[in-house]
């Protein structure tokens, strides 16, 4: 069975965020870190070269493959902020209130935090944290 490529690195998350060139993206990264740490009660960990994760979630697929991923995470991509919040069942109300965003399989894409409703985002992150623990 293939091993997961994305693993905790032990790299300094603050230094990683401080090195982001784009000032809005850098500020949004620090804001998301604070939000995710407050909700999770877990310290930020750099997974692979660019994913900032909180906690650990062990998964197993129907095919029997398994591994560990961050329970919740985000990444500061060039085009958008990517929030890894796993499942969206029951998130409809918060997504409707969120503002400008896109969704993918387990991912929420936001251009910048100024485009979204902070309370709706916090609810989404909290629900994702709670659900990933079950």
| CATH architecture descriptor | Alpha-Beta Complex
Order of helices and strands: HHEEEEEEHEEH
Instruction: Give me the side-by-side strand order of the main sheet.
Output: 1-2-5-6-8-7
Strand content: 15-25%
**Which spans have pLDDT < 50 for at least 5 consecutive residues?**
none
Give the proportion of residues in helices: 25-40%
Structural class determined from secondary elements: alpha+beta
* Counted beta strands: 8
**At the first level of CATH, what is the class?**
Alpha Beta
Cα Rg: 14 Å
The CATH topology? Aspartate Aminotransferase, domain 1
Number of helices: 4
Characterize the largest beta sheet: strand count, sense, and whether it forms a barrel.
6 strands, antiparallel
* Oligomeric nature of the chains: single chain
> Mean pLDDT, as a whole number?
90
First and last CA, distance: 25 Å
Overall body shape:
globular
Quickly count the domains.
Answer: 1
Pfam families: DUF1801
Domain YdhG-like: 25-128
Protein name: DUF1801 domain-containing protein
What does this structure look like?
It is a single chain. The chain starts with 12 loop residues before the first helix and ends with a helix. It is globular, with a radius of gyration of 14 Å. It has 134 residues and is an alpha+beta fold. It is built from 4 helices and 8 strands; from the N terminus they run H-H-E-E-E-E-E-E-H-E-E-H. The strands form 2 sheets. Strands 1-2-5-6-8-7 form a 6-stranded antiparallel beta sheet. Strands 3-4 form a two-stranded antiparallel sheet. The longest helix has 18 residues, at 23-40. The chain has one domain (13-132): Aspartate Aminotransferase, domain 1, CATH 3.90.1150.200. It comes from Sphingomonas kaistensis. This is DUF1801 domain-containing protein.
């Amino acid at each position: 069975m293939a091993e997961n490529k994305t693993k905790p690195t032990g790299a300094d998350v603050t230094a990683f965020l401080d090195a982001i060139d784009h000032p809005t993206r850098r500020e949004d990264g620090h804001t998301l870190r604070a939000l995710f740490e407050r909700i999770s009660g877990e310290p930020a960990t750099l997974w692979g070269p660019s994913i900032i994760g909180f906690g650990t979630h062990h998964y197993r697929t129907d095919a029997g493959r398994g591994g560990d991923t961050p329970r919740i995470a985000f990444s500061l991509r060039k085009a958008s902020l990517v929030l890894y919040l796993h499942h969206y069942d029951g998130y409809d109300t918060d997504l409707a209130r969120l503002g400008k965003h896109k969704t993918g399989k387990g991912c929420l894409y936001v251009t910048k935090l100024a485009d979204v409703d902070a309370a709706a985002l916090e609810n989404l992150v909290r629900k994702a944290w709670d659900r990933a623990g079950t």
